[in-house]
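Supplementary Data S3. Sequence and structure tokens for construct A.
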Amino acid sequence: MSRTPTSDLKLAFSVALAGLACCASLGAPHGLHRLAGTPGVGRSQNGGGLQPAAQVTLELIKTQRDGRTAAGPHFIVPLELNGSAVRYLGVGRANGTEPCVLNSYWTQPSDLPWSFWQADVRLVAATASQTTVELRWSRTRGDRVEAGDTRVVTLLPDQYHLVDYVAPPDAASPCANVALQVRANPVPDDSTTPLNIDVWLVQDGAGERRLAHQQVSGRSGGSATAFNLEPLEFSPQGGPLAERRPASQTVGLQVRGTVRAALRRDGFVDVSIEATRRLSFANGQVEGNGQQDFRNRPGETAEIMLPPAAGHVAALDFARFFQGATTSLFVTVTRRP
């Protein structure tokens, strides 16, 4: 099988809200308006002041010399946009006892541990698919600051970022190292409402429009919902197929991925879509993937414009084959009746 590396086909999505007159028979709404660019992250599209929320977790993780890991104390910090909180975590005690005893503190202790972290975390932005925090942290031992910085970190749900780690002072300790890490998850305004999510793959070229459609069910603020659109098939000479052929004798364009959506109290919905485009011919294929966040109202349709096709398999150059054609995904989120 011939394959072009995914990194060579990274999809650079762009998004706008648009009408989808071609697909009215499939349930797409009429009379949609178009917005310039992508709505700003961290504010409502209509200028309202509603602020997104997230839960930020600061935790210590201990790795023992036999390879086992153990979660230590942690803080789960609920934050509003631009809200911040200071938390303290420590390893061991100043009197020289086992340095891999992990502790947490609501205030700075008078008897400082062997290593002591102070972390000030601020919520910068939150969408349905990712959270951005600013973290100012320092590690001290006694009265000496050993490490620290200020960093801005963007995290996917349940993804963690390693902030710092320390090793014990000698090989006698059963602990190999202790790490400080941060995780963050957006907190949806609505986590119960059932949703219908319609996804269209639309290709315009040579005076013809081709499309595939799928409706999937999800829940506001829930986990990502998978979609897998039927492939659009073309004859190797271009144009639609006059008759059904084996897949190895057709040029295929197919998109699959996941989508998540979260209803907001200001009437908008945050949507995040990850998609993989597959181009195939003669038992070979090339793939590229991309991710896009946007915000609109339930029932409105967003058009996600995919970049031109690229790569080749066998004697077929996809860029030349699809030259002049445009390919888009259209996404509509509605409350399920």
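Construct B, processed identically:
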Amino acid sequence: MNVLPLLIVLLTFAIGGCSKPLGEVATASKVAGEAGQRVAQAAEESGDLALAEQLYAQASAAAPSDAAVQLRYADILMRRGRINEARDLLSKRLQTVSDPLELHDGLGSVYVLTGDPIHAVTEFDLVLAAKPNDIRAVVNKGIALDLLGRHTDAQALYRQALTLSPGDQVVINDLALSMLLAGRPQEAEQVAAPLRGQTDVLPRIRTGLGIVLAANGDVAGAGSAAGTQATQAQLVQLAKAAASSAH
């Protein structure tokens, strides 16, 4: 069984940040002027990603040195399923932006989503060499290492991230799933325990919690945790798949 797609789905991957989408690194950036920015953001919020893409494409061409604009455009491309275009955009703009580290982080995220964790680690290492406590790069490198089966190294990075952002539900989820993938379901459940009492848990993280609970035999609790995100049967199946990939 090829578990790479499963791992990518299980590990909560917020491109460019733990709890923020890629383009939120600099919300003050202007996108083809204030009016264009408002229209683009409104288009995103209303679900009109085609219009948002058009506006950010124009902004990307008009401001090739603005890293935030390039990241926002790449984010829209990825949300529309055009991951290769996002990768090509970020690779091209590395030569033009004033802060290439932001793009290296985004490019590493793209490599993770395309199943190329080795190149992803290289990109994240470039960021961490300059900013050792950049939480986005720390967490995203951890995910890349998990995809490579280097769970112990990944868990060290998640714990580093938790010292930078205590209680972050995304990092807790990733750490718990990493332990599950390493064949340590009981420890995974202990790590994920704080999520059970929270009411504002993100949908994918609820699914992750459900998988961890299912892996420990608490099928009813798994279903309650996941809610409408997955059935009990699906959670059990995912837990078995994670167990089969444990190493």
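The longest helix spans residues 33-46. The chain is about 70% helix and 0% strand.
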